[in-house]
Design a protein that fits this description.
Length: 348
Amino acid sequence: MAHLYESRKRILVTGGAGFIGSHLIDELLRDGHEVLCVDNLFTGSKQNIDHLHGQPRFEFIRHDVTLPLYVEVDEIYNLACPASPVHYQYDPLQTIKTSVQGAINMLGLAKRLRCRILQASTSEVYGDPTIHPQTEDYWGNVNPIGVRSCYDEGKRCAETLFFDYHRQHAVEVKVARIFNTYGPRMHQSDGRVVSNFIVQALRGEPITIYGDGTQTRSFCYVDDLVNGLVRLMDSSTDLIGPVNLGNPAEFTIRELAQFVLDETRSSSSILTQPLPQDDPKQRRPDIVLARAKLSWTPRVSLREGLKPTIAYFRSLIQPAVLVTSREYVAYDMAGLKAASAYPAGGQA
Ligand code: NAD
Ligand code: UDP
Ligand code: UDP
């Protein structure tokens, strides 16, 4: 529903050209707000926000959040950070800097503007969890020196910064712990399980299951997640979080592979590959807090959410482009290198 002019806000979304960020921007614009999208296009893309070209309430600045940012806004969603293991391990130091220095800059901005700021944290703060399902009061089981720690520890440190800016400077903060989310506009070669399986199935390539496929994840459709983020941002001042946002329906990776094969009607075979280091064995959010405080619950089942996601990937995959997924990764990593070398801070 469109807001009255008086209640219209100017909202900053960092990481807004990414998968979740671009859907969040669509929702905020639908709600009648003005949106400033800040992104260095490391893993995001202009295609994700192409449809907003000419929308007078939308602006884009190409900028790296590890550098200071002086703008005037009423609210900040801090999403800037690569999210897939392939992407965040590509340049681990930049990943930590984005989480930590990016959080400091965005919190400094929120402090100066006295505005609300929401952090997109992650279920990865729980690491390879020893309690199941994960509740917000669980402190986690994270390897501080492993290949995933640039992301996990970066996000944990960002949470610390959010709470310290709140305690020390009374900045109004909100912390969402997001569990595996999927949907249209995921990067087709980000290496995440949903995008990998769908692309492989559509290309008729083998579905790569890491390990024996008995590890579990809980998959949330992006529209549900965005709804949860907006509800958390709009919640009463005393609700700081962290709040788990995710779909508690839990599946083994092997079950997911079968769903994707069914929905794509693909005859791809299954190929077992080694399990990556520190791969969590199980993950399922306890969402009692989100249900109680935000009246939020995910609506879209995995089977239902896979349909538009598959349709999206189908539209990307042209039969004329005869390259394999592996070649796509190589091609896209070259693209990422170019993006990370880009002298950030420039205007698009
Ligand atoms: P994504 O990679 O599609 O989006 C991240 C965006 O941040 C990209 O557009 C990227 O270009 C931008 N970015 C990265 N580093 C930046 C920097 N230094 N300065 C400015 N922009 C930068 O990933 P996503 O899945 O949309 O994730 C969005 C947020 O949600 C991330 O913070 C991620 O950690 C969090 N999250 C996502 C999931 C998930 O399953 N998708 C789960 C948990 C948490
Ligand atoms: N900052 C920013 N925009 C602002 C205000 C601050 O990017 O509008 C950055 C600035 O780089 C600063 C950081 O946020 O270093 C932290 O700000 P804070 O006020 O907490 O600390 P200080 O200015 O003392 O470093
Ligand atoms: N995975 C898999 N095949 C793939 C990609 C991932 O079996 O092609 C597994 C991966 O080992 C993990 C799960 O799927 O157990 C989810 O991986 P993803 O990278 O999507 O997210 P995360 O590990 O961060 O939850």
